Structures are given as structure tokens and as C-alpha cells.
Amino acid sequence: MKLEKEKSLLDELAEKTGCDYLSDLPGYVGSSSFHNGIGVLRDWPLSEWEEAAEYLTGRRPEFRNEQEAREYLLRANRIGNS
Description:
By secondary structure, the protein is an all-alpha fold. 49% of the residues lie in helices and 0% in strands. It has 4 helices and no strands. It has helices at 9-17, 32-40, 46-57, 66-75. α1 crosses α2 and α3 runs parallel beside α4 (66-75). The model has no long low-confidence stretch (mean pLDDT 88).
């Protein structure tokens, strides 16, 4: 049984990216710190990845799995440009 996480995927990604505020995270999309942050995040449900994609890119694509969502975010350059 998985334990409930205290933070969301977006909160964890902001922390790993070095953002002081979650609202700053979209400005980091495409940066090396963003890529590094995504690279270390594992074991998040697909729904969290979909929420992150929508928040960061302004689009809500459907993914088959978490890896597909991760790759989508790694290809994103900035909000609305994925």
C-alpha cells in the first residue's frame, strides 16, 4: 500500500528545481534545473503528471503512463510551447 504524499508533484518539482514559489516554476520549464528535477522524481500517479503538464504548458494531453508524461515535460520549452 502506498502512503499518501505530503506534497504534490508540482511542489516537489519546484523544490528540486530551486524555485522559491510554485508560481515561479513555469519560468523554469526547459532549464537544466527543471530537467534535473524531473529526472529524480519517481513513483507519482499519472493524474499528478497530467496536472503538472497542464499547469506548466497550458495543455492537458492524455498520457498512457508516467514516463510518457515525463518525456512530454522534458520536451516542453515554456508555457504553451510543448
